[in-house]
Amino acid sequence: MKNEEIVDSLKVIKCQHVSLEVSNVDVSLKFYRDFLGLKLSERHFANENPAIPFEMAFMRLGKQHHDLVLTHDPKRNYPEKIFNSGPAGIHHYAFECPNKKSFDMYLERAKEMSLEIVRGPVLHSAYQSKGDGTWGENWSFYVLDPDKHRIEIFCEMAEIDNAGHYIMENGKKVPDKKAEEI
Ligand SMILES: [Fe+2]
User: Fold this and answer.
1) Whose CB among 14, 20, 148, 174 lies 3.0–4.6 Å from 166's, allowing a Cys bridge?
2) For residue 138, how far is its CA from the centre of ligand 1 (angstroms)?
3) What is the pLDDT of residue 35?
4) Does 108 reside within a domain?
5) Under a CB-based contact definition with an 8 Å cutoff, are residues 170 and 163 in contact?
6) Containing domain of residue 70, as a range?
7) How far is Cα of residue 3 from the mean position of the Cα atoms in its chain?
8) Do 54 and 135 belong to one domain?
9) Whether this model's pTM surpasses 0.85
10) pLDDT single digits (tens) 130-142
């Protein structure tokens, strides 16, 4: 095998699904269906498979079998999560909208559903005039799911080209900005 082939085969291609522990699978299934339109691929109850003593619900956005997995251990007592407190864990995870129009519609949907918007909408940019001075060039807002997992909804994140330049949604480079590693 050539060196380049070895390097290519050692590259993972994306960060994909997340699995969340939830206190009630029915409640979370409804939330992720109603708010984001995820569909149930399959659901299993505890001990259906002897190796899996907990409930699992596999949900998808597109063609892959799952983008989100809800898990629940019926023998476990789930204390209420205190927002911005507790041991180290996932700070948030994110769903990408195809464009700003879609992002705005999700923002309206979050308001209609009376979801707790814990941050935003905000443009994470130190360069664009509407930006908040932070990083990524993307629009975002953040809500909490029924177990207070923080979810980010975003669009228009900058892409980084082969030379490390940041390319914004409009195709322009962010001046004087380069990725730390190329
Ligand atoms: Fe984020």
Assistant:
1) 174
2) 9
3) 98
4) yes
5) no
6) 17-74
7) 34
8) no
9) yes
10) 999 999 999 999 9
In 3D space, the residue among 74, 129, 65, 120 whose CA is nearest the CA of residue 97 turns out to be 120
Q: What is the CA radius of gyration of the chain?
A: 19
Q: Is 96 helix (H, G, I), strand (E, B) or coil?
A: strand
* C-alpha of residue 37 to centroid of ligand 1, in Å: 20
Residue 22, pLDDT > 80, answer: yes
- If asked whether residues 37 and 68 sit together in one domain, one would say yes
81 CB contacts (<8 Å, ≥6 apart)? 147, 148, 149
For the stretch 89-92, contacts whose Cβ atoms lie closer than 8 Å and that sit 24 or more positions apart, written own/partner, are 90/18, 90/149, 91/150, 92/142, 92/149, 92/150, 92/151, 92/152
Please tell me the distance between residue 150's alpha carbon and the centre of ligand 1 in angstroms. Answer: 10
Angstrom distance (rounded) from CA 107 to CA 102: 9
**C-alpha pair distances (Å), 62 with each of 43, 89, 143:** 17, 27, 22
pLDDT in tens, 89-131: 899 999 999 999 999 999 999 999 999 999 999 999 999 999 9
pLDDT confidence tier of residue 145, bands split at 50, 70 and 90: very high
Ion ligand 1: residues, CB < 5 A = 94, 152
Distance in Å, CA 50 to ligand 1 centroid: 36
The domain tally of the chain equals: 2
